[in-house]
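Q: Is it fine to ask for two folds in a single conversation?
A: Yes, each is treated on its own. Send the first.
Q: Here.
A: Result:
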Amino acid sequence: MRVGLNRRTGEVLTGWDHCIQSICFIILTRIGSLIMLRAFGSLVPELQDDNATPQTIMRVYAAIAAALKAWEPCFRLTKIQLTRHGPDGVFAFILEGRFYPMGHVGDYSVFEAKRAVLAANDNGLKVLAA
């Protein structure tokens, strides 16, 4: 089972809770910003200040999907849905997919369907429900 620490409190996180924290970190990390792992992250931070046109939203979908495929072995995205957007700058996305508890060691024999609602604004990304 995957185990890690909560980035804010230092508490032990396991399973899906740790995976959600990793998903948020991956999406919010600008490619090239980690010294020892320059390729890590997503293009989402680059798109954050662009106008919310259908083309930009589609680029955000693609950036999320590509980053999770590359960097999160325990989650396989099957659906992204934009559920909230508006002039206040808050965007909410539903991410659905398969969570593989042992995916980090290459075991994809067991999985659970999982869903997370993520909200993004200029203060970062928050998990609203998981």
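Q: Second one now.
A: Result:
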Amino acid sequence: MSTQTIPGHLLKDRYWRATLHLFINHPKLQRYLTSQFFDLEKGTIRAAALKKAAAPWSESEKFALNLALHCFNESHKVNLSDMDYLDLQNKQLALDAIKLRFF
């Protein structure tokens, strides 16, 4: 799925734009920005399937996914202290997503 196939209104939506920012810019999450996990027409994400796929991932990759899901819907919890697992580049990516969602 390319950014060209993402409806413009989703890129402007504060919940979607932070989530999509992480999925578009995070190397691991990019691979999962597919119709298997996202239905952009219906505006849904198969969060349980993503979490199942993420089971063997590193802690930093799981944090990126959890943050993306939390930005989309606060029922998905994230522990901000897990940002300690991130390198500087991914911390900046996470902070950018937080800004997109909350500012």
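Q: Anything structural to flag on that second result?
A: Two points. The longest strand covers residues 38-39. The helical segments are 8-12, 14-25, 27-30, 47-53, 59-72, 88-102.
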